């Protein structure tokens, strides 16, 4: 569970070849960060994996099976949106339970899954509150909770912390890393922030104009950047 392989994946919007051709292997349980400047195609690549956009060509293998033409809900992946994507009129409990309700899961099972997710995310005491009665960090955790209850093969995060203040961002970064250690589920995390990439990733994918410049561990990228772009972006001394 949780491996994702891209084979010659491309994406064209009208005349614009946003992703010319990408090959990438993500192993089960890895924390992979897509990093690169604004507009380089990070969100597009994540949305292709999630199935929110169709590939123009190429293949996306999920757990060894061809997932290229599967609907988003059938891919077994959970996209974590920014905390403002919560339903403001619903309690934390109902926000987290929402995807399970939609799937017609029996209420007793829903209650158990919500309780389990709340425990992992330290939200047990906040289940009856509305999102506006929570801090930014707690809201972000509710958004993650809504993904956790579906027990996905992988979590996909698109700059989930970008609307939090700097101190909270550092805090949430640690929380997401801890969550990864607890769940050991594949996570793909998109950011334009080099520090986030260097501190969170098992594997960093450096993107530039829709192409992969380099894939490697934070240490590999720091010690042996393959080109000036990677060196400049990672802040390597070379
Ligand atoms: P990033 O997330 O790295 O900032 P994006 O993946 O959002 O970059 O965008 C990459 C490029 O694709 C940008 O030039 C953007 O304008 C373009 N793009 C993204 N989505 C669309 C779309 N739906 N239609 C046309 N162009 C798009
Ligand atoms: Mg983006």
TrEMBL record:
Protein localization: Cell inner membrane
Domain of life: Bacteria
Enzyme nomenclature, EC number: 3.6.3.-
Keyword Transport tagged: yes
Domain spans labelled ABC transporter: 4-234
Main localization (coarse): membrane
GO cellular component: ATP-binding cassette (ABC) transporter complex, substrate-binding subunit-containing; maltose transport complex
Membrane in keyword set: yes
GO molecular function: ABC-type maltose transporter activity; ATP binding; ATP hydrolysis activity
Keywords annotated in UniProt: ATP-binding, Cell inner membrane, Cell membrane, Hydrolase, Membrane, Nucleotide-binding, Sugar transport, Transport
Protein family according to the UniProt entry: Belongs to the ABC transporter superfamily.
Name of the protein described by the UniProt record: Multiple sugar transport system ATP-binding protein
């Amino acid at each position: 569970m949780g491996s994702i392989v891209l084979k010659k994946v491309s994406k064209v919007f009208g005349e614009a070849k946003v992703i010319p051709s990408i090959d990438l292997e993500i192993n089960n349980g890895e924390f992979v960060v897509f990093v690169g400047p604004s507009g380089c195609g990070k969100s597009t690549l994540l949305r292709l994996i999630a199935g929110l956009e169709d590939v123009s060509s190429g293949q996306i293998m999920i757990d060894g099976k061809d997932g290229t033409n599967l609907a988003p809900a059938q891919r077994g992946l959970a996209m974590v949106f920014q905390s403002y994507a919560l339903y403001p009129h619903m309690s934390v409990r109902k926000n987290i339970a929402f995807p399970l309700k939609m799937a017609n899961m029996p209420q007793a099972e829903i209650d158990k899954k919500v309780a389990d997710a709340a425990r992992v995310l330290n939200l047990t005491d906040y289940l009856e509150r509305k999102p506006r009665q929570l801090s930014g960090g707690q809201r972000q955790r509710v958004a993650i909770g809504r993904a956790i209850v579906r027990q996905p093969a992988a979590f996909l995060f698109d700059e989930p912390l970008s609307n939090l203040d700097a101190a909270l961002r550092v805090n949430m970064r640690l929380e997401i890393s801890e969550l990864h250690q607890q769940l050991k589920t594949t996570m793909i995390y998109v950011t334009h922030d080099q520090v986030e990439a260097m501190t969170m990733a098992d594997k960093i994918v450096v993107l530039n104009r829709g192409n992969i410049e380099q894939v490697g561990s934070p240490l590999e990228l720091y010690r042996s950047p393959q080109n000036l772009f990677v060196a400049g972006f990672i802040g390597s001394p070379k």
